[in-house]
Every structure is written in structure tokens, then in C-alpha cells.
Amino acid sequence: MAACLCNLDPGVAYEGPRVVYATLGGSPTWGLGDRFHEIAATHGHARLGTHRPRTPYGPGPSVEHYRAPSGREFLRIPSYGQVIDEDPELRASEWKTFWILWKAGVRVLLVGGTSGSCDWRRSAADEDAVRPGDLVLPRSYLTRDTMPMGLPGTELEFCLPRQVAIMDDPFCPPLADTLRAHAGRLGSFRFRRVHGPEAGVVLNRWLAGNGFESLATCRMLETLGRQMSMPVITGDCVSPVLARVCGMHLAYYHVVANWGTGLEVEDPTIALNRLYMETLPPVAAAFELGFLDAASEPTACWCRELLRARPPEYARAQSPRSEQ
Ligand SMILES: [Zn+2]
Questions:
Q1: Which partner from 43, 91, 100, 222 sits 20 to 30 angstroms from 149, CA to CA?
Q2: How many whole angstroms from 207 Cα to the centroid of ligand 1?
Q3: Is 10 domain-assigned?
Q4: CATH number at residue 186
Q5: pLDDT tens for each residue of 36-47
Q6: What is the number of structural domains in the chain?
Q7: pTM of the predicted model as reported, rounded to 2 decimal places
Q8: Pairing mode, if any, of strands 194-195 and 135-136?
Q9: Tens-place pLDDT, residues 240-293
Q10: How many angstroms separate the CA atoms of 249 and 20, rounded?
Q11: Measured between alpha carbons, how far is 199 from 204 in angstroms, rounded to an integer?
Q12: Sign of dihedral through CA atoms 194, 196, 198, 204?
């Protein structure tokens, strides 16, 4: 991450709500603008307040506090914690967002995204392919950037000598099962196909950028996917390592909106805008709200065990902190 640490203020205290469940509403609900709470109200979810916590890295994003029909409270940080006109990487958006979630006590984090498919199987006969209109619960991820893996100015800044994140099952499998169950309860709406973790879909992480993938990148990912027998999708993805280091179970879903380049035979702008503005937002909102109301904290996964403690000698092998 290119963000600068010159203004780091480790003394900032978290003053927002404390909850176990949270979501980073992303591109599936962009079409609702700032009206997610209105849709939530129609499903019986009350927005209790909106906060703007300070963080050690500067002013944080909006944090919405909800109570679900079951009585459970959860947080929603809109659009991955991105702030209008601010470069997310430059402004340490992921550090700010995860610091808030970590301080709030979040242990189950739901994240959704929309993605482009780089499946190599492109003919109409390829029924098993990951195509636009599908729901994907990814098995693993690739990253093209240097992901944030800790929270500077806290005990999680660089915890490698004390604990290491094993990145098998980056997306909590029992929560993927819960998401799959909720995908079948969306009224008259049906995804063309649901690809669960067993389908081995790889999410090529990229949290923020001003463009679609290039043709060359898509061809590379198609080729890679064919060689690995793991289809690749490209789209927004928060750092799975940071979520694991912060002790969170990550529930991840992706709606495949288009092919990787963003281009199709028909006008891509019109088709994509219709999808993002009309079709997807109410479905994605209902999907997320249903999950947040009903999902339980998993016990049959190994997300916590995969954050492995290390022998104390490893920490002593490093230089002690200076007195400054
Ligand atoms: Zn888990």
C-alpha cells in the first residue's frame, strides 16, 4: 500500500458501535446510491445511526448501524469504505475500514462484489462456465497488488513473528453454505447458476481502479485459469490476509456482471448500467440483509486455527523496539 504513515496517530480511540456482524456494501448495491437504508426498512431493518469514526490514519468512512428483525445489530460501511473523490489506496481506505471493524469487535464480515469472468469456456454450450448472471462463492484468490496485511500503529502492524495467516480457505466455507442457502430464497429472482467453493473459482483481487482489465490481462487470466482448471474472475476484493489477521470470518460473494474486459457485442455501457441500476441492487440488498439477520458465527471452520501462533523465539529474534 502506498499510503503515507507521516500522519499516523496511534492514540486515536474508536468511538463507534460495537458489534459482531458487519458488511462492506460494495458494487452490487451501488445502484441504490445512499438509499440502502430505505430498502433495508422495507425488509424490517432499522438504521439506528450513522457514524464517522476517526482512525489512526485520518477520518474514516461512514459507518451505518442497523438492527435486523431478529434483534441482531450489525454495521454497514458503504462501498468498501471508499470516500468520494479520494483515491482509496492513497488514503489508506482499507486500513481505516479494517481498523474500524476490528475495534468494533467484528468477527463475521460479509463482502459482495461484481466481477468480470475470465473463464476460458466461452461458447454457448459451456454450461459449467462462469458467465454473466452467475453467483460465485470463490474458493481462493490471486492478487495483483501489494495487499495490506496488518494495521499500522496497532499490535497487528506486523504480527508475523507471533502469528502467521495460512491462506487456505480464505473465504469461510460454512458462511459460503449460508450464502448459497440465501441465494435460493430471493423470491422470483434466480441466478443463472451458483458456483460454490467446490467449483474452484479464483477471485483476482483488485480493490480500486479507474478501468476495466485490459484484453491482455483477461487473456492471461483465461490461460492461467485453463492451466489450473480454476476459472478466474476479476473484481473488488478486500485483503483476505487482513481479515484473517483481524480474526474475522470472511463471507464473500460475487455477482458476475460481464466478461473481464467489460466489452460485449451489445453496447456495454447501456447493458451494464441497466444491470447495476435496476436488476441487481434490490436483489443484492435482500440477499445481504437476509444473511446478516440470520447467519451465525461459524464453529465448524478453521478460520481461527489458520491464524497460527508461532514459537516465542521468533519474536525475540527481532530487534527490540527502540525507546523513542
Ligand atoms: Zn470461518
A1: 222
A2: 22
A3: no
A4: 3.40.50.1580
A5: 999 999 999 999
A6: 1
A7: 0.94
A8: parallel
A9: 999 999 999 999 999 998 888 776 655 555 566 677 777 889 999 999 999 999
A10: 11
A11: 15
A12: positive
Q: Cβ–Cβ contacts within 10 Å for residue 52, how many?
A: 11
Q: CA triplet 105, 107, 111: central angle to 5 degrees?
A: 115
Ligand 1 centre distance from Cα of residue 5 (Å):
31
Mean pLDDT within 158-167: 93
* Residue 85 counted as domain residue: yes
Nearest one of 47, 32, 113 to 80, comparing CA atoms = 113
Residue with cell 462501498: 79
Q: Would residue 80 count as lying in a domain?
A: yes
* DSSP per residue, 176-189: HHHHHHHHT-STT-
Closest CA to 262 of 85, 82, 114, 137: 114
For residue 301, report the distance from its CA to the centre of ligand 1, in Å: 5
Sign, CA torsion 75/80/84/88: positive
Domain assignment present for 27: yes
The alpha carbon of 293 and the centre of ligand 1 are apart by a number of angstroms equal to: 17
* Distance of alpha carbon 16 from alpha carbon 48, whole angstroms: 12
What is the per-residue pLDDT for 265?
55
The answer to whether 306 and 168 have CB atoms below 8 angstroms apart is yes
Phi, psi angle pair for 257, to nearest 5°: -100, -25
C-alpha cell at 36: 440502502
Cα–Cα distance, 89 to 9 (Å, whole number): 18
Tell me if 17 sits within 8 A of 105, measured CB to CB. no
Crossing angle for the helix pair 173-183 and 280-294, to the nearest 10 degrees: 130
Ligand 1 centre from 300 Cα, in Å?
7
DSSP state of 238: -
